TrEMBL record:
Alphabetical list of SUPFAM superfamilies matching this protein: Thermophilic metalloprotease-like
Protein name: Aminopeptidase
InterPro entries noted in UniProt: M29_Exopeptidase (IPR052170), M29_N-terminal (IPR035097), Peptidase_M29 (IPR000787)
Cofactor: Zn(2+); Co(2+); Mg(2+)
Length: 371
C-alpha cells in the first residue's frame, strides 16, 4: 500500500512541476536509498503517457569514484550521461542521501574537475536550459536531524511545505515579479551587510513549484559589474560536502575581492574555480511561509520566509547578466528579527523590513497570507 502523501507529491511533480505529456522521456534521478517515491513517480509518469527512466546513486559510492577518477575517466563518464540527458524532455531529482558531508574529503582538484567536466555541461548547460525539471529532497532521518526535529514531526512539516497551494502562491508573486522587472537599483542592509547593485534590464522570474519543491522565490540577477559593498550571510551552507559558516564577501565593480568564512582557504578555492565564480549570477527574495530556519539544505534554505540569496557563479538564461561559471552557489541571508533583521530597498523605496513586505501590493506574500 503506497503512502497517500507520497502519491500526492508524485502526482504534483509529474502533473504540475514537469507537466509530463504523452511520449515524453522523463529521467527520475534518485540519490540515496529511498525507493517508494521513485516507484510512485514511475507510476505517475507512465499514467500520463510519459516514458520513465531511472538513475539510482549513492553518495558514498560517488565519493569513492571521485577520489579515484582521472580527468579522462570523468570526460568519458560525462559524455555518456550528457548523451542520455540530451534524449530527455523532463528531469525529476529526489535527494535522499544520509550524510550531507559525504564528499567532504574529496580532494579539491577532483571536485573542480567534477564541477567543470560533469556538472556544468550536463546540468547547468543541458538539463537546466533544455528540459522541464524539478529537484526536491526526501524527508529521511538525516534531514530531520539537520532541521533539529524528530523524524515524524519533520515528515509532517515536509508535506506541509511540499504540498502547499503553489498555484495560490504563483498569483501572489505577480506584483513582486513586475516590481523587480521595473527596478533599477537595489540596496541590502543587515548586520555586516551594506550592498548595492543594479538589476536594470535583467528581468525577474517567479518560482512557484515548477523547478524546485519546496518553492517560493522571485529571482533576478545583478548587472555583472555593478555590485559594490559587503554582504555577510547568516546561514551555514554545504558545498561539495564541506560546511561553511559566517561567509562574508566584499565586492568591487562586481567582483568578490575579499572572501572569509569558517574555512577561508577552501572558500577561496571554490571562488577560484573560474573567472565567473567571483561574480554574482542570481539575486532572489525567498518567502515560503512554512520554512523558517536553516537546515543546511539549499532547496529549503533559499526559500526561507524573510530571506534572500545572493549567488556566486552561473547566471540563469531567463535573467542573464552574462556571467558563466561551473559554480552556482545559493548563499542565504535571513532578515527576520531573530536573525538580526534587515532591509531591502528598490530604487530607494523600502519594500521589505525585518523579513516582512511593507508595501501594499506585496503584502499577500507575507506568511499569514500564503498558508
Amino acid at each position: 500500500m503506497r503512502d497517500p502523501r507520497l502519491q500526492a507529491l508524485a502526482a504534483n511533480l509529474a502533473g504540475y512541476s514537469v507537466d509530463v505529456q504523452p511520449g515524453e522521456n522523463i529521467l527520475i534521478d534518485m540519490i540515496g536509498s529511498e525507493r517508494e517515491l521513485a516507484i510512485c513517480l514511475i507510476e505517475e509518469v507512465a499514467k500520463r503517457g510519459g516514458r520513465p527512466f531511472v538513475e539510482t546513486s549513492d553518495r558514498s559510492v560517488l565519493r569513492a569514484l571521485l577520489k579515484n577518477a582521472t580527468k579522462e575517466q570523468m570526460e568519458l563518464w560525462a559524455s555518456f550521461d550528457l548523451k542520455r540527458m540530451e534524449a530527455m524532455d523532463g528531469y525529476i531529482a529526489v535527494r535522499a542521501g544520509e550524510n550531507v558531508n559525504e564528499l567532504a574529503d574529496v580532494p579539491s582538484a577532483n571536485m573542480l574537475l567534477y564541477d567543470q567536466l560533469y556538472r556544468h555541461p550536463i546540468h547547468l548547460e543541458r538539463r537546466v536550459k533544455h528540459t522541464k525539471w524539478v529537484v526536491l529532497r526526501y524527508p529521511n532521518a538525516s534531514m530531520a536531524q539537520l532541521a533539529n526535529m524528530p523524524t515524524e514531526a519533520f515528515e509532517n512539516f515536509y508535506f506541509d511545505v511540499c504540498n502547499l497551494d503553489y498555484a495560490k502562491m504563483d498569483r501572489a508573486m505577480d506584483p513582486l515579479e513586475k516590481l523587480m522587472t521595473e527596478t533599477s537599483h537595489v540596496r541590502l542592509v543587515a548586520p555586516g551587510t551594506d550592498l548595492s547593485f543594479s538589476i536594470q534590464g535583467i528581468g525577474a522570474v517567479k518560482c512557484a513549484g515548477l523547478r524546485n519543491i519546496p518553492d517560493g522565490e522571485v529571482y533576478s540577477a545583478p548587472v555583472r559589474d555593478s555590485v559594490q559593498g559587503t554582504i555577510t550571510y547568516n546561514t551555514p551552507s554545504v558545498y561539495s560536502g564541506v560546511t561553511f559558516e559566517n561567509i562574508s564577501f566584499t565586492f568591487d565593480k562586481g567582483k568578490i575581492v575579499k572572501a572569509t568564512s569558517s574555512d577561508t582557504v577552501k572558500l577561496n578555492e571554490i571562488l577560484d574555480t573560474d573567472e565567473g565564480a567571483r561574480y554574482i549570477g542570481e539575486f532572489s527574495l525567498g518567502f515560503n511561509p512554512y520554512i523558517l530556519h536553516p537546515m543546511k539544505d539549499t532547496l529549503f534554505d533559499e526559500k526561507i520566509a524573510g530571506s534572500l540569496h545572493f549567488t556566486p557563479g552561473q547566471a540563469y538564461e531567463e535573467t542573464d547578466n552574462g556571467n558563466r561559471s561551473a559554480v552556482h552557489w545559493d548563499l542565504v541571508l535571513i532578515q527576520r528579527p531573530e536573525y538580526g533583521g534587515g532591509e531591502v530597498y528598490f530604487d530607494d523605496r523600502l519594500i521589505r523590513k525585518d523579513g516582512r513586505f511593507v508595501v501594499p501590493e506585496l503584502e499577500p506574500l507575507n506568511p499569514e497570507n500564503l498558508k
